[in-house]
Write a structure and sequence with these properties.
mainly alpha; 6 helices; 6% strand; elongated
């Protein structure tokens, strides 16, 4: 599995908003400059997050974007799933129930299933607040 540029930039955008919004709204132009991301690229990411209680928007002179919730209420998993679609490690796991004709006897499926479980738990455990506070290094998730 590989997180796309879109997923990485979406997280960076939300972290930037959490750092810089204060009581106001932040323009894409300012985020783009700080994050060294094309404003046009950010304009493609915003619609993926609108309507999902992720961003608040304000048009006009003091317009821009801000987080709809507190940073500790966003998980990396939520953001990445929203912009990436799925975080499943292999295509055959995209459907539930698994429709692969080999799933009942596939010897590698348990490995992929466990990888998916570990990755999901890890990404669900990381919030924007954790990222802001530098609390995401080598985290261990115990059962």
């Amino acid at each position: 599995m590989k997180i796309s540029t879109r997923g990485r930039y979406a997280l960076r955008m939300l972290v930037d908003l959490a750092q810089n919004q204060g009581d106001g709204y932040v323009t894409l132009k300012d985020i783009a400059a700080r994050q060294e991301i094309s404003k046009k690229y950010l304009e493609q990411i915003v619609p993926l997050m609108s309507g999902h209680n992720i961003l608040m928007t304000n048009r006009g002179h003091q317009g821009g974007y801000r987080l709809a919730r507190q940073p500790e209420e966003y998980t990396a998993a939520e953001v990445l799933r929203l912009v990436e679609g799925s975080l499943k490690p292999v295509a055959c796991m995209e459907n539930d129930p698994n429709r692969c004709t080999r799933c009942t006897f596939c010897l590698t499926l348990p490995m992929w299933t466990e990888m998916d479980r570990i990755l999901a738990r890890y990404l669900e455990s990381i919030t924007l607040r954790n990222i802001l506070d530098g609390e995401v290094g080598a985290r261990f998730i115990s059962d």
